[in-house]
Amino acid sequence: MFDPIVINRRFVHLGEISITGTFAGFLLGHPEVLSQELRRRLPDQLRARHGEEVQIAWPEGTILPRYRYVVTFSSEALPDEPQHRLTVCKNSPPGQNWDYSFMRFCWFRHDLKGDLVETITAAAKDLDWLKYAKNTAD
Question: Residue 21 is part of which domain span?
């Protein structure tokens, strides 16, 4: 089990981690053409696999890097969460009516070097959690 990382003031736990060759499943083709095809169909493929939207950080350039990472994050409550909670559930203990949320995030890298948690933390540091995360109650 990994220690939580911090994204936008939230302590976030790493759930499912998937690292795949970007061009896995293609037998032939020029990397630029395959990259165009992946940009077109990857959102639907990830949605079909995970059952909902996956936030994708598309890199610049016409050819995608060699490896695709997909990580599921789930948040803990904010340290100052009680002040943001609805009045109706302000006094309930943690784990009941708290604002837990999750996000699936995809990005690409050219190599597999480095510590996995540091790689994930660096890739996710600028994610807009409030914009893209889904509440677990939804």
Answer: 5-90+105-135
Tell me how crowded residue 56 is: count the other CB atoms within 10 A of its CB. Answer: 17
Q: Would you give the DSSP letter of residue 58?
A: P
Which percentage of the chain shows pLDDT scores above 90? Answer: 47
Residue 95 counted as domain residue = no
DSSP for 64-120, written as a single string: --SEEEEEEEEE---TTGGGGS-GGGTTSPTTSS---EEEEEEEEES---S-HHHHH
Average pLDDT of span 70-85? 70
CB 53 within 8 A of CB 22: no
In a domain, 97, yes or no: no
98 domain residue, yes or no? no
